[in-house]
Amino acid sequence: MIVTLTPNPSIDRAVLIDALRRGEVHRATGSRIDPGGKGVNVSRALAAQGADTVAVLPSGGPEGHLLDELLDSAGVAHASVPVSGTVRMNISVLEPDGTTTKLNEPGPTLSEAEVAALLDTTLERSSSAGWVVGCGSMPPGAPTDLYAVLVRRVRERGGRVAIDSSGASFSAAVAATPNLIKPNHEELAELVGHELPMLRDVRDAARELVSDGIEVVAVSLGGDGALVITADVCAHAIAPISAPLSTVGAGDCMLAGLLHGLSTGHEPADALVTGVTWGSAAVTLPGSRVPSPADLAGIRAELTLDPDLSRAIR
Ligand SMILES: Nc1ncnc2c1ncn2[C@@H]1O[C@H](COP(=O)(O)OP(=O)(O)O)[C@@H](O)[C@H]1O
Ligand SMILES: O=P(O)(O)OC[C@H]1O[C@](O)(COP(=O)(O)O)[C@@H](O)[C@@H]1O
Q1: Nearest protein Cα to ligand 2, atom 15
Q2: Which residue, of 6, 23, 188, 222, is most buried by count of CB atoms within 10 Å of its CB?
Q3: Is 202 within 8 Å of 218 (Cβ atoms)?
Q4: Residue 164 known to be catalytic
Q5: Is the pLDDT of residue 44 over 90?
């Protein structure tokens, strides 16, 4: 069982247009909505593959009702904590060449009691979980150290915890030493405070974090695949996709696959292959649709345990 906590979930609306021109009226050629937020997407990706998961999230307002309904109809188990604010709507503008422009709202302001209820619900649901996963940004009102507290509370009980976030809440969580983190290229650079132009730089930055006590650092690198670093492994995997349709949620699917691999007893390098397969499959799908088993069938990830460290990262 994998429990996800998404303090700031969303309704994701993807709008397709021919080309984005600032200040002009655009006629959309298509649109779709999906339940969203990083932990919600991790749970959606796991549920789509038949894996046991529950998504913990705050839910309020009309968008909150819609989110609950969308999760119910997708068969994603969720524990929604009622809140007085309204769940946000995030918009992705997709162009035919794969360019994605995202507009993320700040989300509702949570009260102290609502934050406490979210944390308590997550911990209640986690008693028999293989992994507890905290993902995404903090809504207004949530303390910067929410993920750090989650890490400490799960680890005190002997559980395993993964975090995927950005900014101050991610740095605070990393300082509390989760078992696993999944930054993307930009988030890792932000975490270590300098640019990471080559795979060697990514590896070195991830190794620094491993030496601080994080067991698995998985770095997603967009079209350059992903790297997993542990105390004894440096593995790179890539599954190129010729015409990506939407990258929204690809990192969440990658994390879901990685955790699924680890929780079903695979070594980190093999779990990375599952992660990259799920992530690459996600970019072939519209909006933030998560891959079904059939969507994974044509994806082939290439794994190397001795990657070319001079590879420039886009
Ligand atoms: N353009 C792409 N081509 C092929 N795979 C991709 C592409 N973009 C993303 N992916 C896959 O999705 C994973 C996550 O993508 P990334 O953009 O790094 O995550 P995030 O959404 O967290 O920023 C990558 O590790 C890779 O497997
Ligand atoms: O919490 P944040 O950082 O605002 O991100 C939330 C957004 O990220 C997503 O989880 C998608 O993730 P990515 O676009 O980063 O792959 C959306 O579902 C959601 O709208």
Answers
A1: 249
A2: 6
A3: no
A4: no
A5: yes
Centre of ligand 2 from the C-alpha of residue 159, in Å: 25
- The distance between the two most distant Cα atoms of the chain, rounded to a whole number of Å, is 54
The backbone torsions φ and ψ at residue 85, rounded to the nearest 5 degrees and listed phi first, read -80, -175
Answer whether 302's CB lies under 8 Å from 237's CB: yes
- Whether residue 148 contacts residue 176, with contact meaning beta carbons closer than 8 Å, is answered with yes
Q: Are 87 and 69 in contact (CB under 8 A)?
A: no
Q: Any residues with CB less than 8 A from the CB of 150 and at least 6 apart, and which?
A: 5, 119, 122, 132, 134, 161, 163, 173
Which strands form 161-164's sheet, in the order they lie side by side?
78-82, 53-59, 2-5, 131-135, 161-164, 180-181, 216-220, 226-229, 234-238, 302-304
Amino acid letter for position 301: A
Residues with CB under 6 A from ligand 2: 8, 10, 12, 36-38, 41, 90, 104, 136-137, 248-252, 288
**Measured distance CA(181)–CA(276) in Å, rounded:** 15
Q: Per-residue pLDDT tens for 66-87? A: 999 999 999 999 999 999 999 9
For residue 228, what are the β-bridge partners? 218, 235
Give the tens place of pLDDT for each residue, 112-131.
Answer: 999 999 999 999 999 988 99
Beta bridge partners of 93: 15, 101
Give the architecture (CATH level 2) of 2-304.
3-Layer(aba) Sandwich (3.40)
The domain locations on the chain are: 2-304
Here the tokens at position 200 are: 């060697």
The answer to whether the CB of 92 is under 6 A from ligand 1 is: no
ipTM of the complex: 0.98
The CB of 40 under 6 Å from ligand 1? The reply is: no
